[in-house]
Amino acid sequence: MKTMRQQPLAADTAPATDRSAPFARLTPTQRKVLDGVYSGQLNKQIAFDLGIAEATVKAHMTALMRKLDVRNRTQLAVTAQALGWSESALTH
Questions:
Q1: Residue spans per domain, the chain
Q2: What torsion, rounded to 10 degrees, do the Cα atoms 30, 88, 71, 83 define?
Q3: pTM over 0.70
């Protein structure tokens, strides 16, 4: 029986000095949406805080998940944490 090898997450293989590189590709609005996800907010709450439509938040979520190569919001938050994201990252 063949077994599949587990591929390491991007966060596991990224050099410590280049941990912010994935975040550099994000737009300012995507960063704000990621901040909301990281804080545990729902799409509706993020939309209200940013003054945008919930559908727009969903579009940004899709782009974030594609850019960070994850499949859902839980993986998005976990990957963001592993890559060094913090709620204060918006000021960087």
A1: 25-86
A2: 120
A3: yes
